[in-house]
Design goal:
By secondary structure, this protein is of the alpha/beta class. It contains 20 helices and 17 strands. A seven-stranded mixed beta sheet has the order 3-1-4-5-6-7-8, sandwiched between helices. Strands 10-13-14-15-16-17 form a six-stranded parallel beta sheet. It is globular. The protein starts with a strand and ends in a 37-residue tail after the last helix. The structure holds cobalamin (B12) and iron/sulfur cluster.
């Protein structure tokens, strides 16, 4: 069968600092190709809608699958599905990915018949099983499938995440993918899932709180096959198991693979397993993203982060000592007043690290979606991108955005604009010499991306598709399993 997989457009806000290859879609493409289908990918982060239209015309896919990891992309995907059904009504349109897994029946209903199936959970098994059932008209019996004819059995976790390796060869314009100074950059995953259970996050609910590791050999083989000099490790928390990180490092050392790496981790993991981060530093790890989330114990408790403010500060000291450049994330509570923004500005300017601010946003699939007592002020999917306030703000909304953007602008002066260009002039020159312009553009794009008036104006856009209303209830320890997409697997998958 001819199968076209499509990744929706990037949101401007995330495009400033990075644009990453659609790794999940590449893994699904590899599995579907291994099952004997003819597969292509169009990534709308790097291609236009017109180019997608031309690909639809020449390739004439029998099935089109959209990646819907992000809520903010739901309206775009529903509209594209409608266009495809108008052009070629016989095309089977399916969607899958992180966010849509939590709201499958709702999206199906909103698409008015333009989407035939939502595939919940991991797509490697889900998409291949779905495609194999299409000739018999039995899509609704496929694991994880939600269709207008019924819902299939629970989605299946891959036995091993070693295979299939992502079909990177299906992506053209790979030079468009970058993360900060790593330009160009590819993405890899070493593990899937997260054993913690932070209240604002759905990484653990998606995978039923399981945690799976790729074998060190498969991980090293994947990295060795990558052409790009930069590599982003997408694991939610890198090196939870230090022996795993060490084994991959040993394998890369044995093969003599040199790259520059960027990863994400938690403060407590960095403190507990500093050795493995030092070893990776020697291997080319330069950049690290640390989700600190809050500066005070009260905030950290609220998010059930299970880390203390002291640990966060100590982790920054360790990272500096090892020589890592750190980007920190802090969650802005819409309740913040001017004083709290001021405190954050002062703190952010007192540390050398890059500080990112994201706005606290309840997402379906997270605990706070059900427990947050404040009423959502909007259900417009496009505003659920953690740069907009979807909960009531203490400051009037225009002032909230002014404070937010002002704070981001002041903080960003440290690492964007003229000062940054001066510091990174050699790197920029090297990139430009190789035709890579993503990082250089990033240094100047801030004002065109972050703009208080535009963010406010986004609230007044006509709304065609809305999220379902959350059902408010307490989520007790036992009830947490009701949030899972994949049921909690046997113990072998959890350590
Ligand atoms: C890389 C990444 C990004 C990249 C996206 C790169 C890209 N083009 O894909 C960028 C930086 C742009 C990004 C942005 C954001 N992200 Co993000 N991101 C990730 C991250 C770290 C890795 C994604 C990944 O590659 N995973 C590995 C692959 C193999 O898994 P996967 O993508 O989930 O794909 C599997 C399934 O979802 C499914 N699948 C995926 N696509 C498809 C398609 C079909 C047809 C089918 C059938 C199945 C299917 O099958 C795949 C294989 O099993 C995840 C965390 C994580 N570890 O997954 C967060 C994560 C997905 N992001 C998250 C969030 C909140 C965001 C942001 C809102 C805020 C932010 N953190 O910056 C923005 C929103 C952007 C937007 N458009 O709205 C949340 C999602 C929460 C939610 N419920 O929506 C996650 C889970 C992080 C977290 N712990 O909170 N992100
Ligand atoms: S925020 Fe990080 S540590 Fe917490 S559950 Fe999500 S991925 Fe895990």
């Amino acid at each position: 069968m001819r199968v076209l997989l499509v990744h929706p457009s990037a949101l401007l806000y995330s495009e400033l600092f990075l644009r990453l290859e659609p790794l999940g879609l590449e893994r699904v493409a590899a599995a579907v190709r291994d099952a004997g289908h003819d597969v292509r990918i169009v990534d709308l982060q790097t291609h236009t809608h017109d180019e997608l239209g031309r690909e639809l015309g020449t390739f004439r896919p029998e099935a089109v699958g959209f990646g819907l990891n992000y809520l903010a992309n739901v309206p775009e995907v529903i509209d594209l599905a409608k266009e495809i059904k108008q052009r070629a009504p016989g095309t089977h349109v399916f969607v899958g990915g992180h966010s849509v897994s939590f709201i499958g029946p709702h999206v199906l209903a909103q698409a008015d018949g333009a989407i035939d199936a939502v595939v919940r959970g991991e797509g490697e098994v889900g998409a291949t099983e779905l495609l194999s059932r299409l000739p018999d008209g039995a899509a609704s019996e496929s694991p994880g499938a939600v269709t207008l004819d019924g819902t299939g059995p629970t989605p299946q976790l891959l036995d091993s995440i070693d295979r299939p390796l992502p079909a990177r060869d299906l992506l053209t314009r790979r030079n468009k993918y970058f993360i900060g100074v790593l330009d160009p950059a590819a993405s890899v995953e070493f593990t899937r899932g997260c054993p913690w259970d932070c209240s604002f996050c759905s990484a653990w609910t998606f995978y039923g709180r399981s945690y799976r590791k790729m074998s060190p050999e498969a991980a090293a083989e994947d990295i060795a096959s990558i052409a790009e000099p930069g590599v982003f490790i997408v694991d939610d928390v890198a090196f939870i198991k230090p022996d795993h990180g060490d084994a991959i490092a040993a394998e890369l050392e044995r093969r003599g693979v040199r790259k520059q790496y960027y990863l994400e981790t938690r403060a407590d993991v960095l403190l507990r397993h500093t050795d493995v981060f030092e070893r990776w530093r020697r291997l080319g790890l330069n950049y690290m993203f640390l989700g600190m989330e809050a500066l005070d114990a009260e905030g950290l408790d609220l998010f059930r982060k299970r880390v203390s403010p002291d640990d966060n500060i100590k982790a920054l000291e360790v990272a500096r000592r090892i020589g890592l450049t750190v980007a920190i994330n802090l969650i802005v509570d819409p309740r913040w007043d001017r004083k709290q923004f001021q405190l954050v500005r002062e703190w952010a300017l007192s540390v050398p690290e890059i500080v990112h601010l994201t706005v606290m946003t309840p997402y379906p699939g997270t605990e706070i979606w059900h427990t947050e007592a404040r009423k959502l002020t909007t259900l417009d999917y496009r505003l659920f991108d953690i740069q907009h306030a979807v909960l009531p703000t203490t400051l009037p909304l225009p002032e909230f955005y002014q404070e937010l953007v002002r704070t981001q602008a002041i903080i960003n002066r440290k690492h964007l604009g003229a000062a940054a260009l001066l510091k990174t002039s050699k790197v920029v020159a090297r990139h430009l010499a190789h035709g890579q312009t993503n990082f250089a553009r990033m240094l100047w794009k801030f004002k065109t991306v972050y703009n208080a008036d535009r963010q406010l104006g986004d609230h007044a856009l006509p709304v065609h598709y809305e999220l379902p209303l959350p059902e408010h209830h307490d989520v007790s320890r036992r009830d947490r399993q009701d949030l899972y997409i994949h049921p909690r697997p046997p113990r072998a998958h959890t350590a």
